[in-house]
Structure prediction request, 442 residues.
Amino acid sequence: MQSTAASRRAFSVLASKIHPQLPLSPRESQQLLNLLTTSFRSHLDREHPVVAPQVSRHKLRKTQPGRNASPTRLGSSHGLASQHIDSILTNPLFAVRPRHTISSSAPRRVDDVLKDPLGWFVDQIASGAADVSKATMCVALMQTNMKRSRITPNMHQTPDSGARNPGSLIANWLRSSGLDTSTEFVRRINDTEGLLHMLIPMLLEEGGEALVWRWFTYHPDQRVQETGLDASEIHRFRSQLLKLIVRSKMNGTSNLDEALATFLRAYKLVGAAEYKLNHKVLQAASSMLLQHFMAHSQVQVSPALYDIFIQSSKDWSWTWPGLATSILWLHHPSTPTAAPGLTFIKDLQKTIIQARTKIVKKPKSYVMVQLCLGVAHQLVAGEYFTDAQVAMDFAKDHYPDLVSPQAVAKGCVTRVHANQRADQKHRQVQENLELLDRLIPT
Prediction:
C-alpha cells in the first residue's frame, strides 16, 4: 500500500501537468499516463483493499482431492487496474494517432487526400471526425487509384496509415464506433455506390469474411431495437447483403465453386434457430445465380455443389419451384437433361386447361420462354421432335408477346431507342423458334 502523502504528491504533480497547453510531447504524455496509472491504482488500493477470504479446513479437505478443482485466485487491485487500462488503450479507436496535431500548420491539401485516401481517413478516425460518408469517399478514392495504377490494395498505402488491410481497418472502425448497428448502415444497403457495395469485395479479398458474416447473422430483433426499423427492412438488408457476398465471389472468375459454397453456407444457417433466418433471405442471391447459369452456357462448377444447389431450390424458389429446378437441370455441368423441364411444361399446360375460365398465374414470361427454348434445343439434339414441338407450342400459345413475329416487329419500331437490349432478346428468341421449326420434320 502506498501512503496518503504519496497519493497527494501524485495528484499535485498530476495537476501541474494538466495545466500546460496541449499538445504534450511524447515524453510528457508518457509521464502523464504513468502518473494517472499510479494514482488510479493507489486510490483503488485504499478504497478497496484486497483481503484473502478465510477458507475452512473442511472445505480445503473437500476440494483438495478433486482433479478438476481450480485453485482460488486472489485478484489484486494492481492487476485489475492494469486489465482495465489495457482494455481501453487497445480499443481500435485508440490504435492510431493523428498525423496532424493542433499545432500543425494547415489541414491536408486535396491532392494529398487523393494520393493517400486511407491515410487521410486514419487521421479522421484519430480526430473523431470520421463518419460513413467519409469512409465511402475513402474506399471510392482507393478503388479509383487502384484502377489507374493497377496495383493491389496493400500497396496503395503509406507506412503511417497503420493498416495492412484497409477494408478490415474500416470494418473494425464501423464495429468499434457502433455505426454498423445504425439506421444509415442498414438503409444504404441498396445504394450501388454506397459503402458496403465497395467494402465487401475488399474485405473478402483480404480474408475478412468473419466480419461480413457477423453482419449477416446479427440477430434481427436486436437490430430492430437498435435502428428503429421494422422487420421487413432488416430482412431486406440481410437478403441484399448475402447477394453482395455471393456476387463478390463470382466477380473476376469463371469458376463458381466459391460462390455456390458461400450460398450453401447461408442455406445451412437458415436451419439454426439462433440466427432467426428464413428461406426468403436466400431469394435475391439464388435468383442472381440462376440468371447467371441461364446467361452462360459454359460455367465451371463442381457437379457435387451444383447438385446440392438443385436440391436447395425447393426451399428458396418462387411460386413455381419446379421452374427453377428445371432450368438448373438444363444447365447441369455434367449431366444436363430436359426431362424435368418437359414435365413441368406438360403439367402447367394441364393446369391451365383444367382451370378453363379461371385465371391461372403463369410463371415469369422471359424465364418461361427461356425454359421452353432450352428444353426444345436439347430435345431436338436428341431427335425427340414431338416433345420439342410441345415446348415450342407452349411458348407460342401463352407468350405470344415474346415469340410472335408481329410482336417482335412492333417492338423493333416502337422501342428502338428506349429498349434496344430487350428488342435484341426478342429477335434472338424468334430466330431460335424459326430455327427449331426448320429442324423439326412436318
